[in-house]
């Protein structure tokens, strides 16, 4: 297992390096964005930061042969500064060294000009994480419990109706569900906020603000867990070893609790981590529609405002989280089921 873990970590690091490198190069093959601010002080401060980090060249007179002029700014000292972008690969190696040596992901171009991108991400991360964690806490027990009931009542009227409802909920697009929930919130006479509460809102309003996003993220997960658990448990209930357990004197409830339920959870529990990452990515639409100041909404805002530094940092966040989750999922199989030992010799 130790050798396997080390290999997986190295593979994840290599994958992360390749993905982020290609993403950075492709994004920077586009025209390099400049601040939309008309305040000379802010613009000069931004470009001075880019010059120090190796992305831009600064001159006090026009230059030939350096490509397109990014910006021409006259400072408070009366001097006119001319800024030109370095070649893409020069910017890439500067960006790579800044990230690896100083964990510096650059500053925002337009969203919050001159603010460190990582600080912006971290300031919005608690909202996104809290909503996703609550939705997982709600969806996992409900989904597993509902799946167990369906499996125990297999082929009954309840099970047949439940399967239709589950398939409908899985097929329901998230943005449609969110739109309906927001519409319901608008007609709730203030019981449920129709948009994310402000930081100055009363505590009860802030708590009620979680109803729409948590419900929107949980419904599809509950249906997915229920379908998965039902399928796994039905397969286990029809196995020979469970019949043997019954012949040894165990009651139906004891056999299900001690053997069937535990074995059916082996492939289910690792999926919780995968589902969390899927919810985290799917919350982008929700955060925009419900006006949640989270990481997902930040991603769209950075894209709309051509803030490449912030966009790159946000993409790195989702990439790193997704790759780390893949390691956790792989390793969790070995801890949940002792019979599974990845990387072991035959």
What is Rg? Answer: 26 Å
Spans of at least 5 consecutive residues whose pLDDT stays below 50 are none
Overall shape: elongated
Query: What is the overall pLDDT average?
Result: 84
Q: Characterize the largest beta sheet: strand count, sense, and whether it forms a barrel.
A: 3 strands, antiparallel
SSE series: HHEEEHHHHHHHHHHH
The helicity comes to 55-70%
Number of distinct beta strands: 3
Strand content: under 5%
Reading side by side through the largest sheet, how are the strands ordered? 1-3-2
First-to-last CA distance: 13 Å
Task: Provide a descriptive summary of the structure in words.
The chain is built from 13 helices and three strands, in the order H-H-E-E-E-H-H-H-H-H-H-H-H-H-H-H. By secondary structure, the chain is mainly alpha-helical. Strands 1-3-2 form a three-stranded antiparallel β-sheet, covered by helices on one side. Helix 1 (2-28) packs antiparallel against helix 3 (88-102), helix 1 runs antiparallel to helix 13 (308-336) and helix 6 (174-186) packs across helix 11 (269-289).
Please write out the topology:
Elements: H1 2-28, H2 40-52, E1 56-59, E2 69-74, E3 80-85, H3 88-102, H4 117-152, H5 157-171, H6 174-186, H7 203-208, H8 211-237, H9 240-247, H10 252-264, H11 269-289, H12 295-304, H13 308-336
Antiparallel strand pairs: 1-3, 2-3
Helix pairs in contact: 1-3, 1-13, 4-8, 4-11, 4-13, 5-8, 6-8, 6-11, 8-10, 8-11, 11-12, 11-13, 12-13
């Amino acid at each position: 297992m130790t050798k396997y873990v080390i290999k997986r970590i190295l593979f994840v690091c290599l994958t992360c390096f390749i993905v982020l490198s290609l993403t950075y190069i492709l994004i920077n093959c586009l025209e390099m964005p400049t601040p939309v601010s008309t305040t000379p002080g802010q613009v000069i401060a931004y470009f001075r930061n880019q010059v120090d980090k190796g992305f831009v060249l600064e001159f006090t007179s026009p230059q030939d042969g350096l490509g397109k002029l990014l910006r021409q700014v006259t400072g408070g000292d009366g001097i006119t500064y001319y800024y030109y972008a370095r070649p893409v690969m020069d910017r890439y190696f500067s960006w790579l060294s800044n990230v690896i040596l100083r964990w510096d992901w650059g500053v925002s171009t337009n969203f919050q000009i001159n603010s460190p991108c990582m600080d912006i991400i971290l300031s919005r991360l608690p909202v996104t994480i809290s909503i996703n964690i609550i939705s997982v806490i709600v969806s996992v027990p409900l989904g597993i419990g509902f799946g167990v009931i369906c499996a125990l009542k297999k082929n009954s009227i309840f099970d047949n109706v439940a399967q239709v409802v589950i398939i409908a909920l899985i097929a329901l697009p998230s943005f449609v569900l969110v739109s309906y929930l927001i519409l319901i919130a608008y007609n709730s006479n203030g019981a449920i906020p129709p948009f994310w509460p402000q930081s100055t809102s009363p505590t009860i309003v802030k708590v009620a603000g979680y109803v729409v996003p948590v419900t929107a993220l949980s419904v599809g997960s509950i249906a997915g867990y229920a379908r998965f658990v039902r399928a796994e448990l039905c397969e286990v209930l029809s196995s020979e070893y469970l019949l043997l357990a019954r012949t040894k004197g165990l009651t139906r409830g004891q056999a299900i609790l001690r053997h069937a339920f535990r074995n059916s959870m082996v492939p289910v529990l690792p999926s919780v981590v995968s589902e969390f990452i899927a919810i985290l990515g799917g919350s982008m639409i929700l955060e925009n529609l419900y006006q949640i100041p989270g990481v997902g909404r930040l991603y769209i805002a950075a894209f709309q405002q051509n803030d490449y530094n912030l966009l790159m940092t946000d993409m790195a966040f989702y990439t790193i989280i997704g790759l780390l989750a893949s390691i956790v999922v792989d390793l969790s199989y070995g801890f949940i089921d002792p019979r599974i030992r990845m990387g072991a010799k035959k």
